[in-house]
Design goal:
The complex is a heterodimer of chains A (289) and B (363). Chain A has 289 residues and is mainly α. Chain A has a single domain (2-115, 139-278), classed as ABC transporter involved in vitamin B12 uptake, BtuC (Orthogonal Bundle), CATH 1.10.3470. Chain A has helices at 2-32, 39-57, 61-82, 93-114, 141-163, 165-175, 177-182, 187-212, 220-234, 239-259, 264-278; strands spanning 130-134, 137-140. The longest helix of chain A has 31 residues, at 2-32. Chain B is built from 16 helices and five strands. In chain B, strands 1-4-5 form a three-stranded antiparallel sheet, with no helix packed on it. Chain B has a two-stranded antiparallel sheet with strand order 2-3. The chains are: A mainly alpha (289), B mainly alpha (363). The A-B interface holds A 34-35, 37, 83, 86-87, 92-98, 100-105, 107-109, 111-112, 221, 224-225, 228-229, 232, 262, 265-266, 269-270, 272-273, 276-277, 280, 289 and B 66, 72, 74, 119, 122-127, 129-131, 133-135, 137-138, 141-142, 144-145, 152, 268-269, 273, 276, 280, 284, 309-310, 312-313, 315-321, 323-324, 327.
Chain lengths: 289, 363
């Protein structure tokens, strides 16, 4: 019984990480109906960026992470302004295939720059620390921090959306692009800001990805898939839903891994498929696709 | 079509596609040359053609899905892998003849495509794309559990099975070659047969009522729906048909490789990224485009593959650039100033008394 409770807790914590992967994807879908197939690779890119900054400047990973956040924002802004804004329109093929091409470019670019070796972000003693909860259950500090970060990100983004002028512009563009434009909103700039925000969130995801487990240039697509599952399970357009979706995937994976270590990833996919069959619009749908 | 009695001057109209006898004769000549090619060509050339034929067949199926049915899948590796594993199961475990096994592989892929479709069709547009990818991942992880087929590390076809091909001895004797070379000749022919079958199937489908329905759905699903086109059923038929063909091609590719692993057989990169590249570079939504794209990919592969990661960066960048700058691809570029079509599927309105070919129907 305690073992299963432990599994459940570890699953929720893992779900925090998946929610971090998924929030950026959920954000850009909610605002511009764009599905970025390079999302996972951009997270891995963020992890390598933090690593490169830390190594090149000889600074701590946490400080490098703080520098990486605005850089990732700029990368996202530029990607949207120069690339994805040119694919806007009714046709879904262009954004899909352009982002698929980008995914291949990023993966192989990272491979060329950093080789296929697995890396880890050095964060010192925190990496191995854990808090005993009693009853033989202990939670790692980093997993706990990643769940906390996911909650902070979701709260922060919701504050931005509902408390600021920028948030109003973002929501207006999401609801009705044409009318928002009539009110003087430059939708292409709004989209670029949204992608910048999504990439800033990806930097947070990248920090926890890199400090919790080893990473290499090839792991991006799997992150995209976990993020996607979290978004669909949670329901399109709801950030809290995405957090819940991430937790569902995380719990399913730890339960699967407990039954048979080879079943971890499969269990996450199966949970996703079951939700898709039973509740095709997810648990907390807001947007209509 | 029928008379239009309401028009002031009654004139007979016909809606037709303009298949030219000369083009048909040309295609037949090309097919004939390719059939007798093993007489002149060496083993390496046959293997190159095998690559082009199989990739082109996969590309035609993906193009049918994405370019005609509007179902952009990044999970076609599911059916390549299913076909490949079915072949290995049928030959290694059930001891069936490889030819029979290839056919069975197509049936297995189609049979599993049906439940897959019922799940992934719940997702629309871009989400459908990632949904198909998840489905492929599920199949990959499930097949990694089959210990009889080597689990996660995979397994090989022994020479006894590879040499059990019907007609192998005859080919070896006639061409005066060893068994391994004779096997390449037979797999070349099978690949050619699958390709011709694929082109015929896709062409026939696009010229049929169902093809017209597909074009209508792609151009506007609500409009097609209001005219009584059953979008769901039409898409389902195309999805399952595509899985059948993709499964057979996958089975053949892995019979030729004679070695399988879940990571390779269900690789999104090998079986979907290259295929998308072929279709996008050549021109999506045309049957000619993928032919151009497959030839381009072959030459790029031949000259640039030694550059490794840089080659792949160039491929990804090129595909993205074409999508942004010239979404009609190379064939579309050509078609802009020429009316020539190898596979005419566009319907035209023609009147016998005036040779006025004004386009009608879909593009």
């Amino acid at each position: 019984m305690v073992a299963w409770l432990d599994t459940l807790i570890q699953g929720v914590l893992l779900g925090g990480l998946y929610a971090l992967y998924a929030t950026g994807l959920s954000l850009i879908f909610g605002i511009m109906r764009l599905v970025n197939l390079a999302h996972g690779d951009l997270i891995v890119f963020g992890a390598f960026l933090i690593l490169a900054l830390a190594t090149a400047l000889g600074i701590d990973s946490v400080l490098a992470f703080a520098i990486a956040v605005p850089i990732m924002f700029a990368v996202g802004y530029a990607l949207q302004a120069f690339l994805f804004n040119r694919t806007l329109g009714a046709d879904i093929l262009a954004p899909l295939l352009v982002s698929f091409g980008l995914s291949i470019v990023i993966q192989n670019g990272l491979l060329e720059a950093f080789s296929a070796d697995t890396r880890r972000l050095p964060i010192g003693e925190v990496a191995g620390m854990s808090l005993p909860l009693g009853g033989g259950i202990a939670v790692g500090v980093m997993p706990l921090l990643s769940l906390a970060a996911a909650i902070v990100v979701v709260v922060g983004l919701n504050q931005l959306f509902y408390r600021t002028g920028l948030g109003r512009a973002l929501r207006a563009t999401s609801d009705d692009t044409e009318t928002a434009q009539l009110m003087g909103i430059d939708n292409e700039r709004i989209y670029a800001i949204a992608m910048g925000l999504a990439m800033a969130v990806c930097a947070v995801a990248a920090f926890f990805l890199g400090s919790r487990a080893p990473f290499d240039p090839s792991i991006g697509p799997a992150r995209l898939i976990y993020a996607f599952e979290a978004v669909i399970i949670g329901g399109l357009g709801s950030l809290w839903g995405t957090l819940a979706g991430g937790i569902v995937v995380g719990v399913a994976q730890t339960i699967g891994a407990r039954v048979n270590p080879e079943w971890q990833i499969l269990a996450g996919h199966v949970a996703f498929l079951v939700v898709l069959v039973l509740r095709p619009r997810g648990f907390f749908p807001r947007a209509v696709d | 079509m029928a008379d239009l009695p309401a028009t002031p001057s009654p004139r007979r109209f016909r809606v037709e596609t303009n298949a030219r006898p000369l083009v048909i004769a040309g295609l037949a000549a090309v097919a004939l040359v390719l059939i007798v090619l093993p007489v002149f060509a060496g083993r390496a050339a046959l293997q190159d053609f095998f690559f082009i034929f199989t990739m082109l067949a996969l590309a035609q199926y993906w193009n049918l899905l994405a370019g005609y049915a509007g179902l952009v899948s990044v999970g076609q590796q599911a059916f390549v892998g299913l076909g490949a594993y079915s072949l290995f199961a049928a030959t290694l475990l059930a001891g069936l003849d490889p030819f029979v096994a290839i056919l069975i592989s197509g049936v297995v892929a189609a049979a599993l495509a049906l439940p897959t479709a019922l799940v992934v069709f719940r997702l629309r547009g871009a989400y459908f794309a990632i949904g198909t990818w998840v489905a492929a991942e599920v199949f990959r992880l499930v097949f990694a559990q089959f210990k009889q087929l080597g689990g996660g590390t995979g397994t090989s076809l022994g020479p006894d099975i590879a040499n059990s091909l019907a007609g192998l001895e005859w080919v070896a004797r006639t061409f005066g070659v060893r068994n391994s070379a004779a096997r390449d000749i037979i797999t070349y022919w099978v690949a050619l047969a699958l390709l011709i079958g694929t082109l015929t199937l896709v062409y026939a489908l696009l010229r049929s009522r169902r093809g017209l329905a597909l074009a209508a759905i792609r151009d506007s699903e609500p409009a097609a729906d209001s005219l009584g086109v059953d979008g769901f059923r039409t898409k389902l038929v195309v999805y399952v048909l595509t899985a059948f063909g993709t499964g057979m091609v996958g089975a053949l590719i892995y019979f030729q490789k004679a070695r399988i692993s879940p990571d390779a057989a269900f690789s999104v990169f090998d079986w979907t990224a290259y295929v998308i590249f072929i279709v996008v570079i050549g021109g999506i939504g045309t049957m000619e485009g993928p032919i151009v794209g497959a030839i381009v990919l072959y030459f790029l592969q031949d000259y640039l593959a030694s550059f490794g990661a840089w080659y792949l960066i160039a491929l990804g960048g090129l595909a993205a650039a074409v999508m942004l700058v010239a979404p009609q691809g190379l064939w579309g570029f050509f078609a802009r100033w020429s009316d020539f079509q190898v596979f005419p599927v566009r319907r035209r309105l023609s009147t016998p008394d005036r040779d006025d070919h004004s386009p009608a129907g879909s593009r």
